[in-house]
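In the lab's daily routine, each protein ends up as an entry in a very long ledger. A line of letters takes care of the sequence, but it says nothing directly about the fold. The three-dimensional part falls to structure tokens, numbers that each stand for a local backbone shape. The outcome of that step, for a single protein, is printed below.
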Amino acid sequence: MPTLQYNPEKSRTAVASQSTGWLLGGIGMAVPLILFALVWSYYAVNVPKWDDHALRAFLYNFDQETTLSGKIYQLFRQHNEHRIVYDRFVALLDYQLFGKLNFRHLMAIGNLSLVGLLLVFATVCRREGRSVTLVIPIALFLFNLSHWENMFWGMAALQNFSVVLWVILTFFLLIYANRLGLAIASATLATLTSGNGLLVWPIGLVLLALLPNEGLPFRPGNSTRSKAFLPLVIWLLSAVVVLGLYFADYEKPAGNPPLRGTVGDLLKGWLAFTGAAAEALPLKSSLRASILLGGAMTLVTIGLVGWQIVRNRQAISRTIQQRLRAHSGTATQSIPPLTLFFWGCALFLLGTAAVVAWTRTGFGLDLIITSRYKIYSLTLLAVLYLLVALVVGKRIRPVVVAGGLAGSFVFAWCAYLTFLDDSIWFRNWQLTNQFNWTYTTNQPVAALDSVTRHYSNPAPASYDSYLGAIYGAPQRSVIPLTLTKAPFGYIAQTNAETDLNVLMGQGLTRNAGTYILLRSSQRSYLVPVWQNQRSLRQTHFLPQRLFSNGFKADIWLNSLEAGTYQLFILQVTDNKPATVYPTNQLVTSVGQATDIKKNW
């Protein structure tokens, strides 16, 4: 009679194969992560943007409170439509550890959420018995410059990246790890990170209801109806408590557009948000491409969910009957964990797209595909790829993975080239903002307020070395510019008469480049420029060929103090003195708006 015998040679081969898979997968995932980290480290600056000021204001208000209840109130205090407890806690921890709030630290912690998200997908892959090499395309989808706004903005990185991690980690903990307590903790973090984290509670309830009794986190010896429903009850009670705290003293924030647009506009907004990843591709209309890609992704997602429901209809029915009858034991048929995980991710990502379309379409469809929302589009791409790669047959899987590798590599490279100018401009915008609120007179004397000095340090900036040029006499040679009226003020740009041989084009370095310098009798302002660039086809997809001579800049008059300003060009080159050129152009501002509502 034949018997099964241990084969040490076969066992060693299997272990070696698994080790090789882990090694190749680890290297493949690490390469895009390291490139992402190097680009971030090179261009990121410790300068706050918009809501970052709210975190610094939180630290001030937190210190002013003399009671524990007052400090807790400051942590949970409403921010726009969100409760940003997680973001505030990280800011407080950073301040307590380092003595100053450092916005690069906030960016780094937020960006690490992408690493956590990648690890969740890799763990799902391993739980499904597949090699982590399948996850390399997901690393390429997640780690690229499509996220330039989030990755270089402390508050945005903490909020927009982290909420996706907490929600998807919650689904993993419920479905694969059977850890209800940890899942509730993760869901609570999602809720206290961003408003769309609220979606985790109804979606999690559905997933819990569809888990078989033996797959639930509680496994009583003698199952009764009450015990069969215990996880659902605990989840519901947790949701009631968390949502009750969330909406306690909640006020609807002003600022959302009263007109949301037509049904067609909302549908376009929903699809554009879902397909926003398409903006990285070298296509004529980014908005149209996003709508088309979003439509395709939405149809595929809904089609897959529908197909899975039909295919698993008997398992769904038996799971519900088993729960209602409080029957334990091994189910003859249950819904695969990967299917439930996909349903949870799809509901959250498409649900978030619907919420954003409803609340933001009135601001304009172009805002829907902004960089800080792209994490949702790219995560859905990653989830769709992961599902297909895991469920296809063994013979087809190499083709799917190869296609995923090729497609994700091309996408990531296009994203780096497409959004490199945005990243450089954003760095310059942050530093020029810092200059504008630091130097508020006609002398190179810093004038920061005491609260700012107490809670954060100014970022080291290249302009520190050429303040003499900014406030000194300009060159005699005039460089003409075209000044065009715009709703916000003026657009200044080079023209046919501009001597572009004098103006050095923007390179890949972080400090060299061109700025607009505005001077009045009272003070000076710096304005960043958008360097002219070639199309990706013209560059042959090489970053060193991306920029060409010439630029344009947006001059927002409501950001200037009242006065008449001379317009100059500030040229900064590496290892050379900065040079200021006159343009013989004047702009006049009536002053900064006084009725702007701020949340910091």
In short: The longest strand covers residues 579-589. The chain is about 55% helix and 10% strand. Confidence is low (pLDDT under 50) at residues 1-16, 218-223. The two ends are 80 Å apart (CA to CA).
